[in-house]
């Protein structure tokens, strides 16, 4: 078992930035294995007479044997149904969840930008910018110099001096994004934070992601929105039941995914593809077999 190992950043675009090698991540959930219908009184009696010995431990395999290499200059979208292991994989890349087996190598620092990322709800947006941007490596003076730019990007206006628990989820997401990208990070992990922004913000976020990519950062984005993946990413990974089932250019990977789970999934058999060797009988590629390449543009 090994957590992310950090090393000196490699030289430039195209160099490997993240190597994920045969990673398994299994959660252990305590207190399961009990009849769901059990009423409170009998559960209490059972606990009093048997202590915790009767508590089951259930293992939830969230990520199974996932391997890929990400490069500097790539923006990688991760798609998959609920519970397919996307967030767990990203949290592991960000160093928050250790792999149960396999290893993750990072060629630089990873910054996680998640829905619940570390901003402090009782403090004002401005205080959060001070703390968050310093955590990203800026000095207090640099943060002060860049404060207006960060606030403008987040488009928070006068709310910047109010406590963050008065923000809408979109406003909080915009501020998180602005803080996390105030410094071009080596590796930026964006877990659904873009989903809450409005269309204008998504456009600005797309530009910022493009800038990070050009400056040879690597970005991972989780999204349930196919167009976010096709518009913002140069590569897509499809996770299914914890496994990586497709890896390649976003259009085809998103196409494969919606072919299996999209609204026309029941009707795939009713189509006949003319003049192509792709047919309805072809199934989704086996684990780790599809795409095969980094899919860089
Ligand atoms: N803290 C946890 N403890 C136990 N099991 C967990 C935990 N977090 C996630 N899981 C389980 O791990 C599996 C993968 O979850 P994960 O959140 O990584 O999937 P996801 O693809 O990001 O889902 P979603 O699209 O709903 O956010 C699921 O079966 C989930 O129930």
From TrEMBL:
Gene3D superfamilies assigned to the protein according to its UniProt record, in alphabetical order: P-loop containing nucleotide triphosphate hydrolases
Record's keyword terms, sorted: ATP-binding, Nucleotide-binding, Transport
Region (Disordered): 275-297
GO cellular component assignments: membrane
Entry protein name: Teichoic acid transport system ATP-binding protein
Statement: the UniProt record of this protein carries the keyword Transcription: no
SMART domains: AAA
UniProt record similarity statement: Belongs to the ABC transporter superfamily.
ABC transporter domain mapped to chain residues: 44-266
An example molecular function term from Gene Ontology annotations: ATP binding
Species in which this protein is naturally found: Ornithinimicrobium cerasi
